[in-house]
Amino acid sequence: MLLDDARVLKQALLNDLLTAVTTESVVRTLGIAAHASAPGQDALRSMAVGIARHEKQHRVAVRVQRRALLDHPVLEHLRKQAKGEVDIRFVGKITRQESPATLQKRRRPLVIGCSIGHFKITAGTLGCFVKSRTKGETLILSNNHVLANENHARAGDAILQQGRLDGGKNPANLAATLGKFIKLKLTGVNFVDCAAALPSPGIKIRKNKLGSFGTLKGLGPDFLDEGTVVRKVGRTTGETTGRVTAFELDNVVVQYDIGNIRFDNQVEIEGSGTKPFSDGGDSGSLIFNEENLGVALLFAGGDTGGANNMGLTYANPLKAVLDALKVDLLF
């Protein structure tokens, strides 16, 4: 179907899903204990709905985090409503990517892809560098859960490079202080997981180096079609290449320490070859296309799904991140 038609159908199916899973009958069928405050929320939070390419057109993409739901009547209803033009896949549990065992070292000047984190977390990835639209300051861009400790931080908190899991200590490895972050909401819809930090006086940066991929060339297009080849440089898996498998994905529910959090309008990516696109500790990585234009900010992933069954990665569209923080990409 045409892209606009797929978007309309996606929204209709999402509305049907929101209605269906909150009914008492569906809750009973799923065997989930109903809660007076949020009946059926566990079921609702196990399905995401987006768009994927099908041959030269598009179809609705459904991503299921619980295998038992693949044969559920709700999905059968979705298949009928979509007249078969639906791509349903089991993706397993999706979690924010923060705490691996692979270590990275101290980097001066600071570079895209190196280990970084709030002084109370383990370690994440320095995504890239941005410039404040209001103050003109050069800032570090990464996730809320990397720089702001899932809303628990305060402006001015210490940011370490390398991250604490990688041997970073406060104040010996102080590299920046927390600036602004977009608060993660436990109820309602989130669109970004992002934060910015101010490099400490005397700390130099390399604003555009992307490892062996070359240099960052600027901001890419808003629209990321299925099949688009993308890359990233991250703390844990280093330089990887993948492709977009779905876009405009709604109701993506990610497990955080503070609870399960819903995101809409997300991008899904699978790794190329036999390797995953990302792993724990790659959160905050800048995702860029083959022209080295920034397109997304990595924040979550799972270890199930994808053509190589090495897991799928989820990312915020980069323009939404920049607009939320009121910053512009440096390159």
Give a quick set of tags describing it.
single chain, 331 residues, 8-stranded antiparallel beta sheet, 6-stranded antiparallel barrel, 6 helices, 23 strands
Q: Could you explain how this protein is built, in words?
A:
This protein has 331 residues and is an alpha+beta fold. Helix content is 15%, strand content 36%. It has helices at 3-20, 24-30, 41-44, 73-81, 144-147, 318-325, and strands spanning 47-54, 57-64, 86-90, 95-96, 110-111, 115-118, 124-125, 128-132, 138-142, 158-160, 174-181, 195-199, 205-206, 218-219, 229-234, 238-250, 252-256, 259-263, 266-271, 286-289, 293-301, 312-317, 327-329. It has an 8-stranded antiparallel beta sheet. The longest helix is centred in the first third of the chain and has 18 residues, at 3-20. It is globular and about 60 Å long. The model is unreliable at 22-40 and 98-102 (pLDDT under 50).
Q: Which stretches of 5+ consecutive residues score pLDDT under 50?
A: 22-40, 98-102
Structural class by secondary-structure content: alpha+beta
Oligomer: single chain
Question: How far is it from the N-terminal to the C-terminal residue, by CA?
Answer: 38 Å
**Rg measurement, Å:** 20 Å
Strand content: 35-45%
- Rough shape? globular
Kindly report the spatial arrangement of strands forming the biggest sheet: 7-6-10-11-12-9-8-23
Helix content: 10-25%
Number of helices: 6
User: What is the number of strand segments?
Assistant: 23
SSE pattern, N- to C-terminal: HHHEEHEEEEEEEHEEEEEEEEEEEEEHE
Largest sheet: 8 strands, antiparallel
Q: Mean pLDDT score, rounded?
A: 87
